[in-house]
Amino acid sequence: MGRWVIIAPERAERPSAFLRPPPEADGGICPFCPGNESMTPPEVLSRREDGASWSLRVVPNRYPALRTELQLVREGVGLFDGMAGVGAHEVVIETSDHRATLAELPAEQTGSVLRAWQERMADLARDIRLKSMIAFKNHGAAAGATLSHAHSQLIALPFVPGGVETELRAARRHFEEKERCIFCDVMAQELRDKERVAAETEGAVALSPWAARSPFELWILPRSHCSSFETATAQELRAIADLLRILLRKIDVALEKPAFNLFLHTMPLREPPNEYYHWHLELKPVLTLQAGFEWASGCYINPTPPEEAASFLRQTEVFP
Amino acid sequence: MGRWVIIAPERAERPSAFLRPPPEADGGICPFCPGNESMTPPEVLSRREDGASWSLRVVPNRYPALRTELQLVREGVGLFDGMAGVGAHEVVIETSDHRATLAELPAEQTGSVLRAWQERMADLARDIRLKSMIAFKNHGAAAGATLSHAHSQLIALPFVPGGVETELRAARRHFEEKERCIFCDVMAQELRDKERVAAETEGAVALSPWAARSPFELWILPRSHCSSFETATAQELRAIADLLRILLRKIDVALEKPAFNLFLHTMPLREPPNEYYHWHLELKPVLTLQAGFEWASGCYINPTPPEEAASFLRQTEVFP
Question: What CA–CA distances, in Å, run from B308 to A12, B69, B191, B311, B315?
Fold first, then answer.
């Protein structure tokens, strides 16, 4: 049916692969805490500001959905198509502090996380078998997190997944017709209306988009046009990190520390800059479940109009 | 971005619209139980075999995502498109017995549920503003059910949703190339291989499909080609109902009564029979969560190969 699925039997070894008992009891030993570095595979990136202790580490996932050591073999199986699970699956340990959430970290540390995504993306892009990278964060058990210590994940894929392809196609179509970036157009319209703007700074804008799929869905966009996260400047990353931090603090107050998914939308790897796509982050507090209707139709029912969500967040005060 | 979302603020009145406390405590009053009929809107269909008590009721949803009383107005809002929420949202109360699950009902009652879907579909198809009907069932809180009394839901939409359109397009493309139904082709190949066949009867086949998106995802197909559920014969419905009941009993044993989503894939309303599409049911036990990666990429990671799921279910014995 034209979709790729990653069949990853190794991930069933994870204690929580099937929803059963609550994942890691916090009393257990956390593999992401200082002193337990030997519980993770060797790090591929780390920050040690003073030589003493680390403030951020990136390590390969111990239960990877994909592996770089495989040969990229594609084969037909009767009607179907198969491909070896070539790719990379890494974990960004966002802080050495077991209890701190991304929202609670100092502003520089939020920036450091986005820079780590970008550095790893540049490195992974050197493997030409890899076609795209998905950066995401699951915060809280309801959002799919199996460990509570703040972390995000990077998955580099040997194909461009359907969801990314669909968005690129829509953006290309808009550009062909109007010769303008659809995200720049949306931002301009939303900044005039204000209704769906949740927060804005000099460098970035946060919207609860028209046709938001779930309550308090948010997009965080750099104001200036830039197609790929890979080529974003340090200043652009900083602007997005600062606004992300404000939003995380706002949803913590407004929605009582909800579970959330955060993810990056950007061009596939190694694409030259273009005028039609505009990288951004998407933030989805987990307040409703995807159920039968969504599975059956690919369509969503959202009980919270985006204008209400944006207005509520605009009025939520947080301290820097 | 080319997708429709239903913004339904009325549904936020539901106590469980936001995941918070566990929905209905079972000690509360169940609006679907005999004696509490006044707690639901008036029924649009019911079965009373002996004139005494009902065995199945269909009622409009008290918190509808869509309503038939609205005018179908479409409008542009700057870059965006809006449409009044015209449609129908009904609930099929599958039994008068508060404690019985669909798996536990007698075989005739499972058939009665599918026939109720079909009867309502025929009635809703008379409203030419409605373009498609989604029939689905959420069983268990983890699958999105807010009431435990066995029920399914019908949503008729004024458009054909993206997920349905994508599957139809893939089936049409296969037919244009091969002049064969892709589902008939898949069934023939799977019945030769046996690996991914979970159960089969004279009239129907259950597969854990190639590239299953989640553990134990299952498709239940009528053996003989039929494009639309709307025109399925009583015999075909009975064959699917009987196999569905066997599978529900198998997953209850194999996966310890999991939460699940069940849904119908069929042609949009009022389409004449065709050779390229083949209606079927899809059954998804809820064993993993959709998390950041899935949201970001539209792609899935499945820790259970479909061959293992099918083999496990083939070996699971259930009594009729």
Answer: 12, 48, 16, 5, 11
Identify the three-state secondary structure at position A41.
Answer: coil
Here the ipTM equals 0.86
- Which of A63-77, A86-100, A230-244 has the weakest average pLDDT? A63-77
| Alpha-carbon distance values, B119 to A130, A190, A308, B156 (Å) | 50, 45, 38, 13
Three-state secondary structure call for residue B265? strand
Token code pair at residue B275: 């050779």
B297 touches chain A (CB under 8 A): yes
Helices and strands: H and E segment counts in chain B: 6, 14
d(Cα A293, Cα B189) in Å, to the nearest integer? 29
Contact A299 B264 (CB under 8 A): no
Contact by Cβ (8 Å): A22, A145: no
Note the pLDDT of residue A83: 81
DSSP β-bridge partners for residue B88:
B156
Residue A77 CB-density burial (10 A; 0-12 exposed, 13-18 middle, 19+ buried): exposed
Q: What band does B15 get if pLDDT is binned at 50, 70 and 90?
A: very low
Residue B93 and residue B152: Cα distance in Å, rounded?
7
| Range A215-234 burial, b when 16+ CB lie within 10 A, else e | bbbbbbbbbebbbbbbbbee
Strand-pairing partners, residue B15, are none
- A278 counts as catalytic: no
Q: Which residue has the higher pLDDT, B239 or A24?
A: B239
d(CA A14, CA B24): 32
Residue B191: in which H helix or E strand, if any?
helix B182-193
- Asked if the C-beta of B153 comes within 8 angstroms of chain A's C-beta atoms, the answer is yes
Nearest CB neighbour to A298, from listed B162, B295, B296? B162
